[in-house]
Amino acid sequence: MLGEEAAHKLEMRIERRIQMSGLRERKTLETFDWAFQPGLDKSLVLELARLEFVRRHDDLVVTGKSGTGKSHVLQAIALRACQEQMTVRYARCVDLLDDLYAGLADGTYPKRLRRWAAADLLVIDDVGLGQVKKREDEPTAAHTLFNLVDRRHARAATAVSSNIKLSAWGKYLGDTTLAAAILDRLAMHAVRIDIDGPSYRQLVATERAKQRGATLPDDSPQP
Ligand SMILES: Nc1ncnc2c1ncn2[C@@H]1O[C@H](COP(=O)(O)OP(=O)(O)OP(=O)(O)O)[C@@H](O)[C@H]1O
Ligand SMILES: [Mg+2]
User: Does any ligand 1 atom lie closer than 6 A to the CB of residue 67?
Assistant: First the structure.
């Protein structure tokens, strides 16, 4: 009976961690179609999901075109970390920046930065997607990301996904020097994965079109 109660408490604790993490979807590696993405090293991803890299305070940088499963993989790893009772914070890059900018307006920026910096695993998803707000005064987007990555560097693991080339971060963040400084820190202790393959979204779209009996227009992108 006691065992059951303890198990229930643990489940509640994990549930709370997932809620606090900012993960909105619960992707898992069990639902990942490895055969669809043969260029992705399955054993490496499964090894990462054992979370030793988090315990070692290493970073993880996943690049690749849109729809190749970068967010799926990072979200699954983040979920595993919640289940392992780690403190996880997940956000898309633009949402993380918006959260910190909101703190500039009401004086909670330092507190918010500390919270993002304190997580055992921070996932900054979708760098390159969406418009980064241009700010004239400091901290700019590049400053903010730099502050965060610098604070966490070699102290806690940060996982990043990007569908633009790392060399394009300078333009995206509006500051080539700071972007280089961020990448320099991430590169030092980072596992790098580049998913070179097809888009799963295209597969889903094609399958749906087939099911509807519709034919795709000739100029639609091929999966
Ligand atoms: N190999 C796969 N097996 C099963 N589902 C997949 C696979 N790859 C991607 N998906 C699913 O396809 C959708 C798009 O994938 P995901 O969001 O991970 O792409 P992404 O690489 O992050 O793209 P973007 O650069 O546009 O953010 C998601 O719903 C994801 O769960
Ligand atoms: Mg993504």
Answer: yes
Residues in the chain: 223
Terminal-residue alpha carbon distance, the chain: 53
Report d(CA 190, CA 148) in Å as an integer: 16
Q: Which tokens is 167 given? A: 């060399």
Tens digits of per-residue pLDDT, 179-203? 999 999 998 889 999 999 999 998 8
Measured between alpha carbons, how far is 59 from 127 in angstroms, rounded to an integer?
Answer: 15
Q: Is any atom of ligand 1 closer than 6 Å to the C-beta of 32? A: yes
pLDDT tens, residue by residue, 131-176: 888 777 778 889 999 999 999 999 999 999 999 999 999 999 999 9
Burial of 197 (C-beta count, 10 Å sphere; 0-12/13-18/19+):
middle
CATH number of 9-30+39-211: 3.40.50.300
